[in-house]
C-alpha cells in the first residue's frame, strides 16, 4: 500500500550502558566460505530503520567485572529492584499466559528487567522484559544467534543441519552474504509489482469467505482467508503450488503447537523431505523465480552451501506465511474489539498504514525474538548472564512497556510514535518487512470494504489460542455477517 514505509524514532532515547562483557567463549564451527557479490542499487531492499543506536558498552576483559547498578535514573519514579538471586526462577508460561500473555508480562516487568524463567519444556532461559534493554540487545555483537555458542538451556527447534543454516541462526559475515542472495525478491519495487496479485488474491478469498458465510452462516476466517492469502504471495516468489503451500503451512503450525507427542519431529521431517524434493525438481527444470536463482547461486557460483540453500527455502516459506497469516487474523480481531477504530478505517482507508504499524506493536503474534547466546558472560541491566546461556528478548513485553509507550495497553491507530521492534532491529531486521506490511494492509482493507457487518460468531471467551510461549496466535477465528456485500 502506498505510503507504507519504515518509520523511525524521532530521536534516540538515552539508554543505559547495560550490557557488559566479562569472559569470552570460543565459537565451535565456522560458516560456509563464500564471498558476497557487490550489492547496492536504486532498487535496493527495505533495510532496518537508521535510528541512532542507544549507547551499549561491551568491554571484554580477562578480569571479572564488578556488578554495578544501572546508571540510568528510572523514568516516572519506578525504582528497579536489585538483581534477582540465581535461585529466583519464574514460571510464567501457564494456561493463563496462553490465553492472554499481557498481564503476565506486566507482572514480569515489575519483577525486573531480566529474569530467569523456566520454559514449558523445563529448560531455562533469561527473559529480557523492558523495551530499552530489548532494543539494546538486538544490536549487541556479544549476543549470538548461532546455536554453536550455546552451552546449555533452550536452543529453539531441534532442526536438521539442512534446515538450520538460515538467516535466523547465522551471525554477521555469513548472514550478510546470504541476505544479499535473497534480497532481490523483496525490494520495494518488486513488492509493488506484487500488489496487483495480492489485491486479486484477497478479492478471491473474500469471495470464498462470502460463499461459506452464505452457506453456513459462520466461517473460519483463518481457514478461508488469512491462511491461504500469504501462500499465494510466497508461492509466486518461489513458484510453489498452492496445495503444497497449504500442506507446508499445516506442518509449520504443528511445529509451533503440536497436538500430540511426536508431532513436531514429524512436521520437521515432512518439511525437510518436501524441500529436498522441491529443490531436486527445480534444479532439473529451473524457472524465473527466487528459488531457481538461489539454486543457480549454489551450483554455478558456489556462493552458498547445499544446507544453506535448503535452509533459505525453509525460512522464506515459513516466515513468508506464518506471521502474516496470524497478523491478518489477530489484526482483524483487534479491530473488532475496537469498533471506533474499525469505523474510522472504513471511512478513512488512507489511515490503514498507521493501523498496520500499531497492529505490529500491539498484536504481533511473535512473543520473543530469536533466542541468543552470549559469547562472553554479560551483564544486562545489572544481571550477570553466563556465556552460552539462552537469552530471550521479550518483544511482546517490550511493546507494552509503559516507560517506552504512553498508555501501551491502549490500541490507537493515531499513535504519534509508531516505532516498534516487531520486524526486528539492526542486522536481523526483517527482509520481507515491506511485503508483510503491504499484505496485511491489503487483506484488512479488503475485509473492511467487503464485509461492513463482520463480527465474531462466538463469544470471545470461546476463542481458542495456540498453546505456545513463542507465538500468541488463534487456532480459528469464527466470524459471521448479517449481509455480505456482493462482489464488485
From TrEMBL:
Matching SUPFAM superfamilies: Cytochrome P450
Disordered: region residues: 1-92
Residue ranges with Basic and acidic residues bias: 69-79
Annotated Polar residues bias: 58-68
Domain of life: Bacteria
Family statement: Belongs to the cytochrome P450 family.
PANTHER family named in the record: CYTOCHROME P450 YJIB-RELATED (PTHR46696:SF1), P450, PUTATIVE (EUROFUNG)-RELATED (PTHR46696)
Protein name as catalogued: Cytochrome P450
Organism placement in taxonomy: Bacteria, Bacillati, Actinomycetota, Actinomycetes, Kitasatosporales
Amino acid at each position: 500500500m502506498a505510503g507504507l514505509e519504515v518509520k523511525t524514532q524521532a530521536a534516540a532515547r538515552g539508554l543505559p550502558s547495560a550490557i557488559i562483557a566479562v569472559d569470552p567463549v570460543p565459537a565451535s564451527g565456522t560458516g560456509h566460505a563464500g564471498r558476497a557479490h557487490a550489492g547496492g542499487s536504486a532498487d535496493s531492499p527495505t533495510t532496518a530503520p537508521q535510528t541512532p543506536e542507544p549507547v551499549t558498552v561491551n568491554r571484554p576483559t580477562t578480569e571479572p567485572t564488578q556488578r554495578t547498578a544501572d546508571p540510568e535514573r528510572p523514568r516516572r519514579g519506578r525504582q528497579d529492584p536489585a538483581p534477582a538471586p540465581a535461585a529466583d526462577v519464574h514460571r510464567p508460561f501457564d494456561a493463563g499466559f496462553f490465553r492472554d500473555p499481557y498481564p503476565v508480562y506486566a507482572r514480569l516487568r515489575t519483577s525486573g528487567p531480566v529474569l530467569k524463567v523456566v520454559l514449558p519444556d523445563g529448560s531455562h532461559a533469561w527473559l529480557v522484559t523492558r523495551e530499552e534493554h530489548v532494543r539494546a540487545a538486538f544490536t549487541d555483537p556479544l549476543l549470538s544467534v548461532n546455536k554453536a555458542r550455546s552451552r546449555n538451556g533452550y536452543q529453539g527447534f531441534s532442526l536438521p543441519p539442512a534446515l538450520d543454516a538460515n538467516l535466523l541462526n547465522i551471525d554477521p559475515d555469513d548472514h550478510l552474504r546470504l541476505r544479499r542472495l535473497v534480497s532481490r525478491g523483496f525490494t520495494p519495487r518488486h513488492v509493488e509489482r506484487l500488489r496487483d496479485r495480492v489485491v486479486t488474491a484477497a478479492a478471491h478469498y473474500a469471495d470464498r469467505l462470502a460463499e461459506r458465510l452464505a452457506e453456513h452462516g459462520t466461517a473460519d476466517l483463518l481457514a478461508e482467508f488469512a491462511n491461504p492469502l500469504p501462500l499465494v504471495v510466497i508461492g509466486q516468489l518461489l513458484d510453489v503450488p498452492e496445495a503444497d503451500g497449504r500442506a507446508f503451512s499445516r506442518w509449520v503450525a504443528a511445529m509451533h503447537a503440536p497436538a500430540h507427542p511426536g508431532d513436531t519431529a514429524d512436521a520437521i521431517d515432512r518439511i525437510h523431505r518436501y524441500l529436498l524434493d522441491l529443490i531436486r525438481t527445480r534444479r532439473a527444470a529451473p524457472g524465473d523465480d527466487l528459488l531457481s536463482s538461489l539454486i543457480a547461486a549454489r551450483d554455478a557460483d558456489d556462493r552458498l552451501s547445499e544446507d544453506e540453500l535448503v535452509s533459505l527455502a525453509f525460512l522464506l516459506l515459513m516466515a513468508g506465511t506464518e506471521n502474516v497469516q496470524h497478523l491478518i487474523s489477530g489484526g482483524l480481531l483487534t479491530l473488532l474489539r475496537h469498533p471506533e477504530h474499525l469505523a474510522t478505517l472504513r471511512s478513512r482507508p488512507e489511515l490503514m498504514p498507521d493501523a498496520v504499524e500499531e497492529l505490529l506493536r500491539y498484536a504481533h503474534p511473535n512473543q520473543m525474538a530469536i533466542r541468543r547466546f552470549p559469547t562472553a558472560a554479560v551483564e544486562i541491566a545489572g544481571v550477570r548472564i553466563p556465556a552460552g546461556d539462552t537469552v530471550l528478548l521479550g518483544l511482546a513485553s517490550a511493546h507494552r512497556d509503559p516507560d517506552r509507550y504512553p498508555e501501551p495497553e491502549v490500541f490507537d491507530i493515531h499513535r504519534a510514535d509508531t516505532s516498534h521492534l516487531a520486524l526486528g532491529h539492526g542486522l536481523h531486521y526483517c527482509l520481507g518487512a515491506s511485503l508483510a506490511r503491504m499484505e496485511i494492509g491489503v487483506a484488512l482493507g479488503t475485509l473492511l470494504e467487503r464485509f461492513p457487518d463482520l463480527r465474531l460468531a462466538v463469544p470471545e471467551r470461546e476463542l481458542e489460542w495456540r498453546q505456545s510461549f513463542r507465538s500468541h496466535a488463534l487456532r480459528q477465528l469464527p466470524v459471521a455477517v448479517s449481509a455480505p456485500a456482493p462482489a464488485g
